[in-house]
Every structure is written in C-alpha cells, then in structure tokens.
Amino acid sequence: MKKIVCLFLGIIMCMSITACGLLKTDDRVYPVKFDDTEILVGETTVSVLLDNGFIIEEIRGGELDKEQIIEKNSYYSGINVIKDDVEYAMISIASEKKDIPLSEAIIAKIIIKPGLEHAIERIYLDGVALPDLTADVFKEHIAGSKMYDDGTCAFFAGEKYTFRAYYEDGNLTEVNAVRNYSVQYGA
C-alpha cells in the first residue's frame, strides 16, 4: 500500500511540475534596434554600439573611455547613446564575474524617451518602429504583457526581463527594456 501511495504522490508531483512550466510567462529578451544595430539587453556588449559608430557619454557630458575598467559585479547607469549628434537612449551597463573594460560591459537597461526628441523613427522594439508602438501593438509583440487600468503603461515583468511602454493621452512617452539583475548599491 505504501508503494502505491508513493507512486501516486510521485505522479501528482510530476504533473504539478509540468503544469507549473506550462503556466510560466514568456520570459525572454526582445530585440531593440538603433538603426541597423540590434541590442539584446543582458547579452549585447557596449562594443557593439561603438563598432557601429555610436558614442557613449556620461549623462553630465563627456565621452566615456572604452578601456576604462569596470569592476566585477558592478552596475552603472546614466550613460547616453549618441550617433551623428542625435541621442538614441540612455543605458545602464553591468559587469559580472571579473573586472572588464567598459567596451565589454553588458547593456543591462535601455531607456528611450520620445519626448526628449530621441531618434525614435530609427528605434525599434521587436521589429516595431517606436512611432507605431501603441499599447495594443506592444501587447501583441511582448508575450504575457499587461496594461494598467488607466492605460498609462503596458508592461511585461518576468524573472529575467522587464519591458515597459508608458503612454500619456495615448502617446508614447517612454520605453524601457531591462535585464533584471540583483544589484546591491553601496552606501
């Protein structure tokens, strides 16, 4: 009898694990493109931007040195991405297990604010040009996404990735693409 109960409980446990897997949302990265340069947050390095003619500078101004060493397990924000004197986005970068040059840092977050006259007609999220990224289009492209009741934000928040599009009076005001990292901020 104990063997039958154990077998039955084992089958139930396997079915539960399988069902949980089927209920998970589609936690994956969606590509962001600046012109023809594709970025996957959490995967693409700063060197991809640099190799495609973009410059990166501190939010307060001043181009960053691509050889500057980024300490292991670090997260830096407030970096502007610029090409041909046009701002595309603000990014955050991360390093993981070792000290690396800035050019090898991973792009961890992208923030695009169309109201700041970014080059939105040359920026795409999952193949959709930002001027065409309505809340409904966002929800079609980003699997498992939801909308705030007041219509101000369409979002997907997964374990690894978060994507948000903010709207005011139906107009896109900000887009975020984020690889979620566990960050400990220093005092």
Structure characterization notes:
With 187 residues, the chain is of the alpha+beta class. It is built from three helices and 14 strands. An eight-stranded antiparallel sheet has the order 3-5-6-8-14-13-12-11. The longest helix is centred in the N-terminal third of the chain and has 22 residues. The termini are far apart. About 11% of the residues have low confidence.
N/C terminus separation: 60 Å
Number of helices: 3
Largest sheet composition: 8 strands, antiparallel
Mean pLDDT: 83
Question: What's the gyration radius in Å?
Answer: 20 Å
- Point out poorly predicted stretches: 5-10, 12-25
Describe the structure concisely:
With 187 residues, the protein is an alpha+beta fold. Helix content is 19%, strand content 36%.
Describe the SSE topology.
Layout lengths: L1 H22 L8 E3 L2 E3 L6 H6 L3 E4 L10 E2 L4 E9 L2 E9 L5 E2 L4 E7 L10 E3 L2 E2 L5 H7 L4 E2 L5 E5 L3 E8 L2 E9 L8
